[in-house]
Amino acid sequence: MKRLFYPEAVAVVGASRDPSKVGHGIFRNLLRDFDGPVYPVNPHADELLGRRCYPSLLELPERVDLAVIAVPARVVPEVVREAGEAGVPYCVVISAGFSEAGNEDLERELVRTARKVGVRLVGPNCLGIINARIGLNASFAAESPPPGNIAFVTQSGALATSVIDWFSSGDVGTVGVGFSKFVSLGNAADLDFPDFLEYLAEDDDTDVVVLYLEGVKDGPRFLDALSECAGRKPVIVLKGGRTEAGAEAVGTHTGSLAGSGEVYEGLVEGEGGIFVGGFEEAFDAAKLLAKAGPPTSDRVLIVTNAGGGGILATDALHELGFELPEPAGDPSVLPPEAATGNPVDVLGDADAERYRVALEEFADPDRYGAVMVILTPQSVTEPVKTARAVVEFVEEFPGPVIGVWMGRHSVALGIRVLEEGGVPTFPSPERAARALYHAARWAEVL
């Protein structure tokens, strides 16, 4: 799939002069960030955004690696036939109106044509694909996600645009998180989850894979590909249509056959995947794994300036099966009023130096596989300085160090320092614990 994600030249069939049309948005996206040639194909226009238009793929001045198709469904098979004649190996079919709309025969004709002329298809009825590492936005998403090491493959294009908007928003909790590949499968008439899992297993730019799936067409092949990929890097699976009502909605969305959530969960986890229950949960786990990696054991140290926060963390971690052994350090490094069990409560008046001392004294990497540092904003709290102390400590600790800066306005700058320093942050102990749980399960330390 290298030519799909790393094309030297791209064509947009259905590139439109009308800014309200999908074909216009795709062409504009490619012009904005992609370094290679981008050719608009429109037999009814001479020029688009300063580029010469061509009447068909057969009349382009050079062979392209990727054609993005945004024309009425009825003419897509003919465009794919021309793509094959022009030597185009990959087509991304944005056009809707196939099996999801009851037109199974047209979708079968599309697939037959593609196979006959040697073209591989993404879609139809999809958002497109993005390789943020090279500025390839072959989609009609409003913008590209920040580049990074997470791949997202989804049957819902709308979820993809939501993720892009979320991680491009500048929200402090998403700083430093980015994406390698985005794939909207749509109806997955040809290329499907197994194909992309096999590719991403070998992709050096991808460290974590997130899947949103509603159903799979070839269960054994999907599980084989999942097992191969999950044996090399975390694969997080979010299943839509887990309930009977949700499964009915799946059928009208992409035409996929859904199955029960319980069955999928057992199969996914049996092959080493991470099965999650919700959207936030999926990307919490992805962020932790992409930034900090999995814990080295099931033993966690909690350091907090708030008794309540420490109690919530203790409950959440214990309920998920983690161990919280007491530290072996010297209690005298902290004020006598401080609690030096686990959690280590550095008290509400703790400054950054007290946090630093507590981490250096009690967070023994031979004793703990992860550390959760909790901060609540009080009158003498130093959210930014404390964050810097945590970032410095991360260099000494081999497992993940997680920041829980509870609050919003007064801790926002501290969260930014943590995220920019490679420390994943979460707004609550419960979300942090759940993300750590998924990472630990994948690493088989829990």
From TrEMBL:
Catalytic activity, as annotated: acetate + ATP + CoA = acetyl-CoA + ADP + phosphate
EC number, UniProt record: 6.2.1.13
Family matches, as InterPro entries: Acyl-CoA_Synth/Transferase, CoA-bd, Ligase_CoA_dom, NAD(P)-bd_dom_sf, Rhodanese-like_dom, Succ_CoA_lig_flav_dom, Succinyl-CoA_synth-like
Protein keywords: ATP-binding, Ligase, Nucleotide-binding
Root EC class: ligase
Pfam families the record matches: CoA_binding_2, Ligase_CoA_2, Succ_CoA_lig
GO molecular-function terms, A-Z: acetate-CoA ligase (ADP-forming) activity; ATP binding
SMART domains: CoA_binding
Domain Rhodanese: 192-254
PANTHER family: 3-HYDROXYPROPIONATE--COA LIGASE [ADP-FORMING], ACETATE--COA LIGASE [ADP-FORMING]
Protein name: acetate--CoA ligase (ADP-forming)
